[in-house]
Design a protein that fits this description.
It contains 23 helices and 21 strands. The protein is of the alpha+beta class.
């Protein structure tokens, strides 16, 4: 028999060291993970056995066994589930979370001082099996995949690598043998094992049985309730049992933000046990991430890849749906277009959104926590789900330029001045960048709240939705907005302001003409601003052109994307602009005014996070101005 020694991958070795030596503050977690894996293996065999006669064996009783050998200090956890072949053992036990290893290491580093995060991370990154090495000097896995003849043995000390060989050992499923460390003898004690199983695995629908094999006349004992948690009445389930169930299915550790356990009967009947985890998974914004709700049919696990159960904007929902209204033999592909699944989805999504509405009204702080974690994802529904746009808009929350406390759109409408007709917003990559924008100056001066939009999805749903309760969403960085009508009720005053602006426009004709010559095609137009109060200039997208934030988003995806030239607005009340106008009275000042106009244009670009159009020219002109400002001694 040939021994095949394999080294762990570099990142796998790093993670093993972290898991074994420093990650988990509660070592008992290893048993939860091994029992959980065994339960999943039984689920898979049960499902595949419906259609594959090689796998189906009705004489087998699905169960998980824990065997204790006190004399040899050995603990064995076994199941008669789907099992693993050579390739499965290599990919599952030789490589850790291949798609998430880097993210795992980064999160470990960021949470190194937070021991409370230890137990939640294990479910997010698929490293649970390796928790065995916290209590074992060596681990041996013997497994035979259902439907195959050859069994395999995987063994490792958890340090450098693993051995993988064929074995003649008779087995159905998987057996994991742990040679316990001297300081882990507690996990040979019946009371300790029973406590851990009931604490973490009582909800598992398969019996977890304990047998002390080195004791005479020892009797097998069932340690858990052995009934699917979701089939029990909610009044009989404790909060701790719910928490452990969600931890078991990879929803993190601790109290979820929201738990929903419902039994729905009618034209379509189903049970749902779902939650919103308190912290979002590391890959929530991965483009390939889909819903991971588990679908059961008559308590038989079918799949956790049924995207039709909930839309992608609810992909943060964890848990399961169990129904008897779908044929057990339905293929996973057919589930996507199954009428019963569609009805369940419509009902379930409605329940989730109604429950979120209740939370937003009755638990404001809790909803703030939810929005912080999942708001950007929920807003994807505004773009994807036209049928529920009004419901989703009611659930959305935004901060404004006035403070960073989030508010609903209805609350924004209540704060609007009487004459305000539109819902004003500004888009930027960050809140601080938005608050630094000169576009806000006029709104601040008139106490007009402006919504801050910092999520990429905002650029897609805003033009699609258009309005909320007949109020139009209007970007303050696009088009021309006249704020005088919002806080002035006196018609004579409005007329006076209009006359002043017309007079001012005539006074700046020459300066605007000069700047148009200098800036040329870099700007679409130059005009006086009615909203700037402190800054001399700003750039505005013309009506019909792409908003500034959307252009930036396009540029991030295509380095060659240039976008349309924008309008340069100048502040006729600003001292600098007035001085530039005065200098034009003498022809010899034309170059000075032109250079100042170039600097102001580049300044406006810099405020938007862009590099100067011509860095060399910008530096040259800036240096000339600095020389004039800093005279020689």
């Amino acid at each position: 028999m040939t021994n095949m020694s394999n080294k762990f991958e570099a990142d796998t070795g790093k993670i093993l060291d972290i898991v074994i030596n420093s990650l988990y503050s509660e070592r008992e977690i290893f048993l939860r993970e091994l029992v959980s894996n065994a339960s999943d293996a039984l689920d898979k065999r049960k499902y595949l056995g419906l259609t594959d006669k090689k796998i189906n064996n009705s004489s087998d009783v699905s169960e998980i066994k824990i065997e204790v050998n006190n004399k040899e200090k050995i603990l064995t956890i076994s199941d008669n589930g789907i099992g693993m072949n050579e390739e499965d053992l290599k990919s599952s036990l030789g490589t850790i979370a291949r798609s998430g290893t880097k993210a795992f290491l980064e999160q470990v580093a960021s949470n190194s001082k937070d021991k409370k995060s230890d137990m939640s991370m294990i479910g997010q990154f698929g490293v649970g099996f390796y928790a065995s090495f916290m209590v074992a000097d060596s681990v041996e896995v013997v497994s035979k995949k259902a439907g195959e003849e050859q069994a395999w043995k995987w063994s490792s000390d958890g340090k450098t690598g693993f051995d993988l060989v064929k074995t003649d050992k008779e087995i159905a499923g998987t057996s994991i043998t742990l040679k316990l460390k001297k300081d882990a003898k507690e996990f040979l004690e019946e009371t300790r094992l029973q406590f851990v199983v009931r604490k973490y695995s009582d909800h598992i629908s398969y019996p977890v049985k304990l047998l002390e094999i080195d004791k005479k006349d020892a009797k097998e004992k069932t340690l858990n309730e052995a009934s699917a948690l979701w089939t029990r009445p909610s009044k009989d389930i404790t909060e701790e049992q719910y928490q452990e169930f969600f931890s078991h299915i990879g929803a993190g550790f601790g109290k979820p933000l929201l738990t929903m356990h419902n039994n729905t009967e009618g034209t379509i009947s189903y049970t749902n046990l779902i939650c919103i985890p308190s912290t979002r998974p590391f890959d929530l914004f991965n483009p390939d991430r889909k819903s991971s709700l588990k679908l059961y049919i008559n308590r038989v696990f079918i799949t956790d890849k049924c995207d039709a159960l909930v839309p992608s904007y609810l992909r943060f929902i964890k848990g399961l749906v169990d129904t008897q209204d779908i044929d057990l033999n339905v293929s996973r592909e057919m589930l996507q277009n199954n009428p019963a699944v569609s009805k369940i989805s419509k009902s379930l999504v409605g329940k989730i959104l109604r429950e979120l509405k209740k939370v937003s009204e009755k638990n404001v702080d809790g909803y703030k926590s939810f929005w912080k974690e999942y708001g950007a994802v929920l807003k994807e529904g505004l773009y994807e789900d036209a049928e529920r746009k009004e419901t989703l808009l009611d659930l959305c929350r935004f901060s404004t330029n006035e403070n960073d406390e989030i508010m609903s759109l209805s609350s924004y409408l209540e704060k609007m001045p009487e004459n305000q007709k539109d819902i004003y917003y500004i888009s930027a990559e960050t809140r601080s960048q938005a608050l630094a924008s000169p576009h806000l100056e006029g709104f601040k001066s008139k106490n007009i709240p402006v919504l801050i939009m910092t999520d990429a999805i905002d650029q897609f749903w805003l033009p699609m939705i258009g309005t909320f309760k007949d109020k139009k969403f209007t970007s303050i960085t696009q088009g021309q907005i006249n704020l005088d009508d919002l806080d002035e009720k006196n018609k004579d005053k409005k007329s006076e302001n209009k006359d002043q602006k017309e007079k001012q426009a005539k006074e700046f004709v020459d300066l605007i003409a000069q700047m148009k010559v200098v800036l040329g095609e870099q700007v679409k137009d130059i005009r006086l601003s009615s909203n700037l109060t402190d800054s001399p200039v700003c750039l505005v997208a013309d009506d019909g052109d792409m908003d500034i934030a959307m252009e930036q988003l396009m540029a991030q995806r295509d380095a060659n994307y240039k976008g349309a030239p924008r309008i340069l607005e100048i502040n006729g009340d600003h001292t600098l602009i007035k001085n530039m106008k005065s200098l034009l009275s003498k022809k010899e000042n034309n170059d000075l005014v032109s250079d100042a106009g170039t600097l102001l244009f580049e300044q406006a670009r810099l405020l938007e996070g862009k590099m100067p159009a011509d860095p060399a020219q910008f530096s040259k002109i800036m240096n000339q101005f600095l020389l004039k400002a800093i005279p020689t001694q």
